[in-house]
């Protein structure tokens, strides 16, 4: 098992305070490597939703989720909830 000594922590803190790069600044690295939302993406979302609704009507099927959506197993859970949807009307009194 790996450990970190108080001396190593103090050394990294001193380097950070002096402005030297320690390579341990994870929050800054994540912030620099991710993208935020854009106006264009919000505008294109409406078009994508219209096309998806038209495709659902054309094929007479409903879309739930595809592949790896969000946290692990989210698409699986969404699909299971979709399958249980019709049952809720039938068994509402058992809850």
Radius of gyration: 24 Å
Q: Please tally the β strands and state the result.
A: 0
Helical percentage:
55-70%
Mean pLDDT: 77
Q: What ranges have pLDDT less than 50 throughout 5 or more consecutive residues? A: none
Question: Which geometry do the CA atoms define?
Answer: elongated
Instruction: Please trace the helix and strand order, writing H or E for each element.
Output: HHHH
The biggest sheet amounts to: none
What does this structure look like?
The structure is a single chain. This protein is mainly alpha-helical and 95 residues long. Helix content is 62%, strand content 0%. It is built from four helices and no strands. The N and C termini lie far apart (49 Å).
Q: Which characteristics define this entry?
A:
single chain; 95 residues; mainly alpha; 4 helices
Short description:
This protein has 95 residues and is mostly helical.
Write the layout of secondary structure elements.
Elements: H1 6-18, H2 26-33, H3 39-59, H4 74-90
């Amino acid at each position: 098992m790996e450990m970190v000594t108080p001396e190593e922590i103090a050394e990294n803190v001193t380097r950070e305070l002096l402005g030297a790069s320690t390579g341990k600044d994870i929050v800054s690295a994540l912030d620099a490597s991710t993208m935020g939302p854009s106006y264009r993406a919000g505008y294109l979302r409406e078009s994508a939703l219209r096309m998806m609704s038209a495709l659902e009507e054309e094929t007479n099927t409903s879309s739930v989720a595809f592949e790896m959506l969000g946290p692990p197993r989210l698409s699986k859970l969404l699909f299971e909830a979709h399958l249980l949807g019709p049952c809720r009307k039938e068994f509402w009194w058992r809850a």
